[in-house]
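To close the section, here is one more complete example, presented without commentary so you can practise reading it yourself. The ligand is N-carbamoyl-L-aspartate.
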Amino acid sequence: MMLSFRHLVSTSQLSRADADAILLQAGEMEALLKKGKSDLLGDKILASLFYEPSTRTRLSFESAMHRLGGRVLSAEGLQFSSLYKGETIEDTMMMAGQYADIIVMRHPDKGSAAIAASASPVPFINAGDGPGEHPTQALLDLYTIQKERGTLEGLHIAMAGDLLYGRTVHSLSVLLSLYPGVRFSFLSPKELRIPEKVTSVLRASGLAYEELDTLAPGLDADVLYMTRVQKERFTDAAEYERLKHAFILTGDQLKGKTVTVLHPLPRVGEITTDVDALPNAAYFRQAGNGVPVRMALLALLLGKA
Ligand code: NCD
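Output:
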């Protein structure tokens, strides 16, 4: 199977055929994981460059590579890297591309991934560029929604929390715009509203959306995608403190509701732990789906699937 792109920077690059191919391949990878070992990427090396904190994304990419028999070189933390010495992102890519067959990078600056992709001699994957995008999280979110709800078409999706800085929301909303009949409720404090760059894509696709400043309408959606208020993007600490717990989802609110609750994690209080035991809570299964989805993407971009 061939994807229409060589580097993944933004979900706006994906066609419906790309998204469907990745989901299909991820299903096959999940079956493969149950069977045991694979050596599909036995001769491949992944460079895993994380210049901003990450646990899930980095570990699941590295796990995905190992599960397919590949190897991983990793660099972590801006302060320990050549970027800190003043090396450009372009030069870092040229260098990493000499050592590895594929590069995954997380970086604090929005736009850094596009620069990296333009210079990378090998396939490049954006694992989060500051408040910009996080396309692989969106793909695993999509895979999770399909698994949990049985379809991707005609769903009512509520996104709640920090919709301004939450890059996973940006990437997922654009990706879901490929599926007919999806409608969105964007629920956030006024200060953290969804950016125009996202809503303009939905308007262009003819999809309905509403923007509200309460959490309650999300309880009756098909999917409620909760997010953390992104502390590291605030310049004013007092503003963060004021907004951090604007929306808190509790077990009580979910009584009698069939909504599927997702969260890219980490959560910092916006979903109370009594929700975890409810059938609505799909966020840990969602985190688990990161491995087969990233296995699929690595294999497809390396021309091995
Ligand atoms: C998200 C991220 O890094 O954008 N986490 C993740 O990748 N699972 C969400 C967040 O940090 O709030």
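Once you have examined the tokens, check your reading against these statements. The chain has ten helices and nine strands. The longest strand covers residues 45-50.
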